[in-house]
Amino acid sequence: MSALTSFNKISGAVVDAALKVHRALGPGLLESAYHACLLYEPRKRGLDVASQVEMPIRYDDVVIDTGLRIDLLVEKAVIVELKALPKMHRIDEAQRLSYLRLSGSRLGLLINFHSVLLRDGITRIVN
To answer: CA-to-CA distance for 123 and 27, rounded, in angstroms?
Structure first.
């Protein structure tokens, strides 16, 4: 299986899990509720999901712990950032791209559970 196929499979499974969570809970809850359920659902499907993964920054050949955390890291390959905001801003997507670049990951998903239709709240970001 090629790397692209693997990324697509993983991100597809995460999106499917997010859709299931959103159908069950609906919009309007705190981000922490969606986080807990989206941590559980992909694991139930056999995916390796890590939560609140520390992401130190390498700057000037020094590794600096900045307190940055990735919401979910799926199969050690796909970064998932969760939001529950009435309105997304360009900085949210820019931040995800920075996380991808700093982590060395190639694919990220930004999922805003506040959307009435979750498909409108999902952004796929490629580094």
So the answer is: 17
Residues 48-78 have pLDDT tens digits of 999 999 999 989 999 999 889 999 999 999 9
According to DSSP, the residues that pair with 73 across neighbouring strands are: 50, 79
Sketch the domain layout of the chain as residue ranges: 3-126
With the C-alpha atoms ordered 41, 116, 29, 102, is the resulting torsion angle positive or negative?
Answer: positive
pTM given for the model: 0.91
Which secondary-structure segment (H or E) carries 59?
strand 57-59
Q: Which residues contact 38 (CB under 8 A, 6 or more apart)?
A: 14, 17, 18, 21, 72, 80, 82, 111
